[in-house]
Model the fold of this input.
Amino acid sequence: MNLLVLLPAITVALTLLTAIVSAREVRRLKAKLAQLSVRLVDAQARLQQSQQHRITVVGTLEMLGKIKTGRLAQIDSLQQELKSLEEEVAPDHEIGQAVPPTRAAEAGL
Done:
């Protein structure tokens, strides 16, 4: 008869012990989940900032590419204009730099 009373008491004690251990583990896991949730929010915010920065960089690169293309076209146009002006000048004329009036007076020109 002692065994019939002792066996259920041991079972109840083990069940209570298991419940206590399980409750502690659940609390620990909930705390860990909360930490991971905060890290997730931070990572998502950093990702969004990085994506926005990337969009800005791509836009800047496109703008600089257009400016470069425009400048190269302008340089090409000016070189063609210079070449045509050089062809218009008589072969015996030399193309030189203009001398500012103050220096021309000093040089006796």
